[in-house]
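User: Please predict the structure of the protein below. I'd like the answer in structure-token form so I can feed it into my own downstream comparison script.

Assistant: Understood. Taking the following sequence of 485 residues as input:
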Amino acid sequence: MGNEKDIQPVPTHDSVQAGETEDAVYDPKSSDDNFEIFKKTTDGVQFRLVGWPQATMIFLKTLFATGVLSIPTAMYGLGAVGGALSVVGWGFLNTCKRLCTLRFLRLTFIDFAIVQGDFRNRHAHCHSIADMAHVVGGPVLKEICGLLFIVAYVLCAGSGIIGLSAGLNALSDHAACTVWWAFLSAAVIIACASVRKFQNIGWLSWAGFVSVYVAVFIVVVGVTTTDRPAAAPQEGPYDLGYNVIAYPTFVVGMTATCTIFISSAGTSAFLPVIAEMRNPKDYNKAVYVSMAIVQASYLTFSLVVYKWCGKWVTNPSLGSAGDTLKKAAYGVGLIGLAVSGCLYLHVAAKYVFVRILRNSEHLQKNSLVHWGTWFSCTIGLGAIAFILAEAIPIFSFLIALTGSVCFAPIAIALPAYLWLYDHWEYRRGSIVKQAVWYTHWLLLAIGVFICVGGTYGVADQIKQAYDSGLIGGAFSCADNSNTHS
């Protein structure tokens, strides 16, 4: 499992020539079919069918639903200015390509999504972030990152189950116990995730993105037409809880930061998609288009909802405009919520699937072993996601916990070190290059801080929620979808 015995050596940081620029990112061997996980074949399963427009939509759908449903809640903790700066800042770190475009500098800068894509195309045998960790840190780091990757996307699949079950609960007027709706949601998500190729899921992503985007737009317009938030007291004076600048405690601030950070941190899910793209060099194009749309939408939608709802934003935020618009939004958005959970579960299952069958004839063969392994991965991980979703049933807490425990190491710390590994010559370069070099070490340290501090903050808030009765308990029939900030 995970044996790279047939892979040719790739250049290490010691062999990178000083002065190497971004134009030299793609090693000629990267496009050689022998270096790809999935081979082009005529007598087996052909995985490499994803074009860059489909990849763009997969990336959009992977990020959009989770962030836009949770960021308005985080705004209450940080205030409008702090929340907006956090959205822009994390989006910049996760996407930005260069600090400067002047030809004499040509410096790759803080660019987590692009760093991972460029590193993968330099080391084309890498299917996941765990494979990249193996290149820079050996088998121990590979297994640690692989575990974090699995936990991250299983938790994200759990958030998809919570979102979909909240929608079914709302549309049915709570006709059944929430646990049963969650079970049904898990079954739907597992079935969708069992679609074997990203190419086919790409078509689902188009419908899913439009579905969620329209649903969120309904809520954004709806909250601006009400006299007061639906979750607030409907008579008498009340505190809106809107602050331009907030002064949160460490626990509240870290939880809100982790929630916003994860909204654009799922870039490690992009890597398995590259392995199924017809032309991996189109990856950067897909990233820029998707992230531009996502960040603009995050900023505008979340600021409007927070401005009108303040601390009375619900979790998820689709319930913030009252029962009628809540049903309308969830009715329109059900497809998108299901596809979100489907993508997260598919990414996790595909990682395990490739780890098990890598370098086996069954990886691209329509055999009993192939199908049995695939369905075992989707059903097994989907069941775990369902259990975790019911254990931590408040949407924003589940999202924040995923950000601190899993995505801080694999979406900040590791990408920073990947850049250092492939640009080792910068440590002895010009002053500007050395500044960029040490900035990436700083980012690595930030990743560690977010992991430790964020986990402490989220765990403390979950404990407080249980103690105060905000969370009804694991596998409770209580509906937590209307819980406000």
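That's the full token string. Confidence is low (pLDDT under 50) at residues 1-31, 97-110.
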